[in-house]
Design goal:
Blueprint (H helix, E strand, L loop, with lengths): L21 H4 L10 H8 L1 E2 L10 E7 L10 E8 L4 E7 L8 H20 L3 E2 L7 H6 L5 H12 L8 H17 L12 H14 L4 H20 L27 H14 L1 H13 L3 H4 L7 E2 L4 E4 L10 E4 L2 H9 L24 H10 L12 H12 L4 H8 L4 H10 L16
Antiparallel strand pairs: 1-5, 2-3, 3-4, 6-7, 7-8
Helix pairs in contact: 5-6, 5-8, 6-8, 9-10, 10-14, 15-16
Length: about 425
């Protein structure tokens, strides 16, 4: 749950002295400032009819309490009241829901520009005037919950199919939390960094998720809220500067040692040669199991000793190439699978699709389960094993970076350290002083 804040509704920032109740927030529309229709609905302004003359008004302006954020800022303007036959002053206090001075001024300026445009067009107060259907549609609200779903739909085409369920799960979890804390119907513009921190705390404390899981959820939301920033729906990304939690070293997908690899090779090579070929793609080419299963014969460029990894199967979503080591090239040339006429190297039963996602993993597990290895050893472990073998053989880190398709040497360095390879073996080659 969101922590209680003394003297205010717990869902709002404790530094704000003037806040509005969450029920009022339900009447807002999303945006870096509410749209015209929403401002009209909030301030009860009515549109000028063709038969009406222009009404007098006083322009909107900001009272910023001399820049004091603890004071009660407001935007003030005067519009004609038809029933009272005079100018009536109105104040707009919602600027106080923006926490930083810079963002508050930006928000206030946008409100002022919109208000003054409406006043110049003749908008006024008239309680007896019924809004047209068009005006009513303009005042429909867009909530925090709806906006996150909207961001996911916008982002969906650029998300890998394997990652989309994770994004969707994060959105569902976020919406559940927002609903429990009465935030789901608030204007997304008011969802600030403090509330993002509260959600982060919720994942850590109430859900008891590991640091890596929490970092993953926050990363997905950061990406989705950036969609809203780019479309000027919100000013800032509330998840952008959240500090990542320190992750402990994972024991998942451990690299095999030499003895284990020899044992496994003896079992798999004789009992399931297709699986053994699958494993060698992972070991020699540093490919991921999900990438290997989707390889087509056309992706193997034997004349260049390369494998093309297209963006739609690559984890990083980019086209890339990996080298085919000479020792593995000979294996491929002699392989019956390689010389078959099918489209995919590892074809599914329907003969038009690649083998299903978990088939090879299950076959591998079933073959080696009597070796009493922990569940932390998986098919993916062969990628780590290949990298460890390459590093210990003295292959330079730049070549390992290229084969892993990492974007930077720093990423490769972090990866190597995660495998316990934090000693540069090349140091041993420094000549002796004489």
């Amino acid at each position: 749950m969101v922590p209680n804040v003394v003297g205010s509704n717990p869902i709002f920032h404790p530094s704000l002295h003037q806040v509005i109740h969450y029920q009022e927030l339900e009447n807002f529309i999303f945006g870096s400032a509410p749209k015209f229709g929403a401002i009209c609905a909030r301030l009860e302004l009515k549109k000028l009819r063709p038969s009406e003359d222009m009404y007098p008004f006083k322009k909107a302006k900001l009272n910023d309490c001399g820049g004091n954020l603890s004071g009660r800022w407001y935007i003030e303007f005067s519009a004609w009241d038809v029933q009272k036959s005079k100018l009536v002053r109105k104040r707009y206090y919602e600027v106080n829901n923006i926490t930083s001075e810079q963002d508050r001024r930006i928000y206030a300026n946008r409100i002022i520009q919109q208000l003054n445009k409406l006043l110049k067009e003749g908008y006024h107060f008239d309680v007896n005037k019924v809004p047209s259907l068009e005006e009513s549609q303009e005042t429909q609200t867009h909530t925090l919950s709806d906006t996150v779903s909207y961001a996911l739909e916008i982002k969906k085409p650029s998300i890998r199919s394997a990652s989309y369920p994770s994004y969707k799960s994060t959105v569902k979890l976020f919406q559940k939390w927002a609903s429990e804390n009465r935030l789901h119907n608030m204007d997304v513009v008011y969802f600030d960094k403090l509330r993002a921190v509260y959600f982060d705390d919720y994942l850590l404390v109430e859900c008891n998720y590991a640091a890596k899981t929490v970092n993953g959820h926050i990363s997905y939301l950061k990406s989705l809220f950036q969609v809203l920033v780019e479309r000027e729906i919100i000013l800032n990304n509330p998840f952008k500067n959240l500090k990542k939690h320190k992750e402990g070293e994972s024991s998942k997908n451990l690299a095999f040692n030499q003895e284990q690899m020899a044992q496994i090779k003896k079992i798999v090579e004789s009992n399931d040669p297709v699986l053994w070929l699958f494993i060698q793609f992972i070991y020699y080419c540093f490919l991921r199991p999900n990438e290997v299963r989707q390889l087509k014969h056309s992706y193997l460029l034997m004349d260049k000793n390369q494998i093309f990894v297209p963006s739609h199967i690559s984890k990083n979503g980019k086209d890339g190439y990996v080298a085919i080591p000479e020792s593995f090239r000979n294996v491929l040339v002699e392989s019956k699978v390689f010389n078959s006429g099918q489209e995919y190297l590892f074809q599914g039963r329907d003969e038009v699709s690649p083998i299903s996602k978990n088939v090879m993993g299950s076959r591998f597990h079933n073959l080696i389960k009597h070796l009493n290895l922990s569940k932390d050893y998986t098919l993916y472990s062969w990628k780590h094993s290949g990298v460890v073998a390459a590093y210990k053989a003295g292959i330079d880190i730049k070549s390992i970076q290229n084969q892993c398709r990492h974007q930077s040497l720093e990423q490769t360095d972090i990866y190597l350290k995660s495998l316990g390879l934090n000693v540069n073996l090349a140091i041993n080659k420094i000549p002796e002083l004489k």
